[in-house]
Amino acid sequence: MQWKTTWALVWAALVVGVWADTPANCTYEDVRGDWMFYETERTGGPDINCDSMGPIVHKRRISLEYPNVVVDEHGNKGSWTMIYNQGFEVKVAGRSYFAFSFYKESDEVVTSLCDKTFTGWSRDVTVRNWACYRAQKTTSVAPKETKKLQTPKSKTFYRHNLDFLKNIQKVQSSWYPAIYEEYEQWTLQDHFRRSGGAASVIHQRVTPAPADLLTRLRASMLPPEWDWRNVSGVNYVSDIRDQGACGSCYAFASMAALESRVRILTDNELKPTFSPQDVVSCSKLSQGCEGGFPYLIAGRYAQDKGVVAEKCAPYTGEDDACSTVASCRRHYTAHYRYVGGYYGACNEIEMKLALVRGGPLAVGFEVYGDFMSYKGGVYHHTGLTDGFNPFEITNHAVLVVGYGVDSKTGENYWTVKNSWGPNWGEDGYFRIRRGTDECGIESLAVEVVPIP
Ligand SMILES: *[C@@H]1O[C@H](CO)[C@@H](O)[C@H](O)[C@H]1NC(C)=O
Ligand SMILES: *[C@@H]1O[C@H](CO)[C@@H](O)[C@H](O)[C@H]1NC(C)=O
User: Fold this and answer.
1) Side-chain half-sphere of 319: how many Cα atoms within 13 Å?
2) 269: Cβ–Cβ under 8 A, 6 or more apart, which residues?
3) Whose CA is nearest to atom 7 of ligand 1?
4) Hey, which residues are catalytic here?
5) Which tens digit of pLDDT belongs to each residue from 143-195?
6) Which residues of 286-352 form beta strands (DSSP E)?
């Protein structure tokens, strides 16, 4: 046992309400249906400013149908996906559209207006001819109000709760906790950001779709274990990094996915380290240190703008202004998708296939208080909470690099790369229960194909 002395670390009074940048809470059913897309002239470049719209030149009628089918006003078919509960992306007739769903904020409430979007970006699938657009559903969706939580004691440092860690050991033996002394230097708000940030607070999630027979057959041919850190003795995974007290996990998971896949595509001839700070400071598709989603970063941002080497925007862990060295080479994503084809179609079997076929997968999962103290073993949420301390469950982005079966317990697990430094967990990694959508880890996986 590596956790001796005092079990520290606890998640006390976790942040009630640092909703600096609350996104909408829109469901699949809110968004499915008929829309009008109002689009400006298609003459812009990737640096187009869509903070305001400009004159409308194109009006399009776009139907978003089950499960991920788009039909435009000419009958052309394409595909669409929700990005969690934040917005939706549409690809049809050679154009690709993304906008965040609309919401309003007052001091007390957030109102999601899921039948419209903020101004978003459209472009050809070849990433040319940019325009701004805004979408309005033809049938209205009732506004949804969410009460804002009270402002937290954000300067409170977390408190130790030895009983909590003892209880974790009492109720199960699949995994064990440890003290992380360094946690004491952070406030609860820092911890909250570290595990996902305000923009990724869990509102709702889909459950995994069942795999069809053919997919099951293909998966039955996969090896019983897989680890991209050791494929016939070769490592294709870049080093563990530390995001610090910034909600940039989504940027780290995205860069880690791209880094690994470049290694795989080039037999380790290229071993880049990409810059999460460029994303934190420069991306309009995420919320800086308040969170974001790998689909929009490893996928869309890396296709739209490209990512850069670490040295072009060294990590500061702050919401700094964008100051990436302009002359740096940009590295692009050729293809990206949610595993299964769209948000809602993911499951364990599709993930195994995608992992072995292409490389590590960026995923999101729910962080509960007990996860923070994980040191080793196969994690599952114990259901334990720290009685007097409310905890806001967040959506933390990480990188699945392998799967296996625990030799002692027989438990199936995923092997996952975290971004909390090499001293956390099992040398910076953790294992988590596989096949049961533990903490939602089988619901949000993203696969990307970078251009090396
Ligand atoms: C978000 O919407 C879902 C589905 O309508 C609902 O179950 C959930 O409680 C909402 N979350 C918040 C924080 O309002
Ligand atoms: C890689 O895996 C092989 C086979 O399981 C094992 O013998 C070897 O020690 C591993 N290498 C490293 C560097 O872990």
Assistant:
1) 11
2) none
3) 204
4) 249, 396, 418
5) 999 876 544 456 777 777 788 899 999 999 999 999 887 877 787 777 777 87
6) 333-338
